[in-house]
């Protein structure tokens, strides 16, 4: 008596579809956890270089944490002006998964229905979004001025041994006007 060793075509199709479903599900699970390597508190300092070549010392910190629906990036900068003034600024933005893989929308205010929505760049507010590309978390901020010109800020935070490499650039109407590159140590 011979055993039938041939696999029925419908069983093969069902097995293949199941395997594809499992791979897609595993990919979604990995995607949902993609902020994990960045989570933590980081500190550092650098000299910010303006388009005229002048440098201004600045202390920086960033905190990246998971939230119920995504993640939060909070950062603080303290700038030391040549005349002795000290200027501190703090920002905090919640990010939610968008319909695009590894692209996150900012939820910065609540609409009349209580839902978090991005700010409106046509009202002078920044439009902010983020993305994760490999080992780099990037946050973009787009500002539109009263004359229709724009400013784009880009914060690249790349995983590094013991912390993050930060690369910041500001562009006004396509021209780079400020940049900084530094290492932020994980606390």
SSE layout:
Layout: H1 9-32, E1 40-50, E2 55-66, E3 70-80, E4 86-97, E5 103-107, E6 109-110, E7 116-117, E8 127-133, E9 136-144, E10 150-160, E11 163-172, E12 175-186
Antiparallel strand pairs: 1-2, 1-12, 2-3, 3-4, 4-5, 5-8, 6-7, 8-9, 9-10, 10-11, 11-12
The termini sit apart by 70 Å
What value does the Rg take, in angstroms? Answer: 23 Å
Number of DSSP-assigned strands: 12
Write down the CATH topology.
Lipocalin
Going by CATH, the homologous superfamily would be Calycin beta-barrel core domain
Structural class: mainly beta
The structural domain count equals 1
- SSE string: HEEEEEEEEEEEE
Q: How are the strands ordered across the major sheet?
A: 1-2-3-4-5-8-9-10-11-12
The appropriate CATH architecture is Beta Barrel
Summary tags:
Lipocalin; globular; two-stranded antiparallel sheet; single chain; mainly beta; 187 residues
Structural write-up:
The structure is a single chain. With 187 residues, this protein is mainly beta. The chain has one domain (35-186): Beta Barrel (Lipocalin), CATH 2.40.128.20. Helix content is 13%, strand content 56%. The chain is built from one helix and twelve strands, in the order αββββββββββββ. The protein has one helix at 9-32, and strands spanning 40-50, 55-66, 70-80, 86-97, 103-107, 109-110, 116-117, 127-133, 136-144, 150-160, 163-172, 175-186. The strands form two sheets. It has a ten-stranded antiparallel beta barrel with strand order 1-2-3-4-5-8-9-10-11-12. Strand 10 and strand 11 form a beta hairpin. The protein is globular and about 45 Å long. The model is unreliable at 9-33 (pLDDT under 50).
């Amino acid at each position: 008596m011979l055993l039938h060793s041939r696999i029925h075509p419908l069983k093969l199709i069902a097995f293949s579809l199941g395997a594809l479903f499992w791979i897609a599900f595993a990919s979604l699970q990995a995607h949902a956890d993609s902020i994990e390597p960045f989570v933590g508190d980081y500190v550092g300092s650098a000299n910010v270089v303006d388009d005229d070549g002048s440098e201004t010392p600045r202390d920086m910190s960033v905190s990246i944490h998971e939230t119920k629906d995504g993640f939060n990036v909070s950062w603080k900068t303290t700038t030391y002006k040549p005349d002795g003034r000290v200027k501190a600024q703090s920002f905090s933005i919640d990010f939610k998964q968008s319909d695009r893989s590894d692209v996150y929308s900012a939820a910065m205010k609540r609409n009349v229905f209580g839902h978090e929505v991005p700010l409106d760049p046509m009202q002078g507010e920044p439009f902010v979004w983020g993305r994760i590309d490999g080992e780099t978390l990037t946050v973009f901020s787009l500002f539109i001025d009263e004359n229709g010109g724009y400013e784009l800020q880009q914060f690249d935070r790349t995983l590094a041994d013991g912390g993050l490499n930060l690369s910041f650039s500001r562009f006004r109407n396509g021209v780079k006007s400020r940049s900084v590159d530094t290492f932020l140590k994980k606390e």
